[in-house]
Write a structure and sequence with these properties.
Layout: E1 2-11, E2 14-24, E3 29-33, H1 40-48, E4 53-62, E5 65-66, H2 72-77, E6 80-83, E7 90-94, H3 95-109, H4 117-130, E8 141-142, H5 148-162, E9 166-170, H6 178-192, E10 198-202, E11 216-221, E12 224-229, H7 231-240, H8 242-246
Parallel strand pairs: 3-10, 3-11, 6-9, 9-10
Antiparallel strand pairs: 1-2, 1-4, 4-5, 7-8, 11-12
Helix pairs in contact: 4-5, 5-6
């Protein structure tokens, strides 16, 4: 599904990624772990096409598309979803408005008919119910006044409605209490644990991996992946720290 080869990328002229290789197949969950400044978020932003994050060498292939040739909205329409560490607030725009516009923009991009208001409302309510989010919260402005846990639950509902093929979740466990962490883990499993989907889960800590079992764990340090393994690698990192393993 995703093939990254010799990826080099820079931000403001500073080289962050320095020859990163990674292959993610459909049906797999990959955890990317690493110390602060290793390049984890840069990798997420490069894949999503965030302006200012420039690929200077290497290739990015997603479902046989060259990502470097696609604008951010085209990447999203082709099934790529980015979950933010700190979801943004959008005053004056309700979750329902935002999500309907986002979903129908992607459907139009794929040549599909947009959902009617009634069709979308039925879908949104079903996703909110399945993820334990009060449907009334969908009427409120995007993330305004939401707690950290509510923002992440709302993001899971967003992911369920958009229904991506590849979810890149950038430190989605940041700032969550135990109950919210369980809810987010359940959301990821419910929405993305399918044979035709994949997840790139970026995190500092092993705790989220108690709820979302990874197929592969990678250590990112100094702009490249320095070690890969199974779920046991996350436990080793938790015991030993990044210093010894990423050296």
């Amino acid at each position: 599904m995703l093939q990254i080869s010799n990826l080099h990328a820079e931000v403001d002229g500073k080289q962050i990624l320095k020859g990163l290789d990674l292959a993610v197949n459909a049906g797999e969950v990959h955890a990317i772990m690493g110390p602060n400044g290793a390049g984890k978020s840069t990798l997420a932003y490069v894949l999503a096409g965030r302006p200012g994050y420039e690929v200077t060498d290497g290739t990015l292939n997603f479902l046989n598309f060259d990502l470097a040739e696609l604008a951010p909205h085209e990447r999203a329409a082709n099934g790529l979803f980015l979950g933010f560490q700190y979801p943004v607030e959008i005053p004056g725009v309700s979750n329902l408005q935002f999500l309907r516009e986002a979903l129908n923009a992607q459907r139009r991009g794929r040549g599909e008919e947009p959902l009617s208001g009634a069709e979308f409302l039925k879908l949104a309510r079903a996703q909110a119910a399945s993820l334990g989010l009060d449907p009334e919260m969908l009427k409120r402005p995007v993330n305004v006044g939401f707690s950290g846990g509510e923002k992440k639950r709302a993001e899971m509902v967003q992911m369920g409605i958009i229904d991506p093929k590849l979810a890149i979740l950038d430190e989605t466990d940041s700032g969550l209490d135990i109950d919210a962490l369980k809810a987010v883990g359940a959301g990821i499993n419910t929405i993305m644990r399918r044979p035709d989907k994949a997840v790139l889960l970026i995190t500092h800590y092993q705790r989220l991996l108690d709820y979302v079992q990874p197929d592969f764990v990678h250590v990112l340090a100094g702009g490249r992946i320095v070690r890969s393994g199974g779920a046991e690698l996350a436990h080793e990192l938790e015991r030993e720290g990044y210093g010894a393993i990423a050296a």
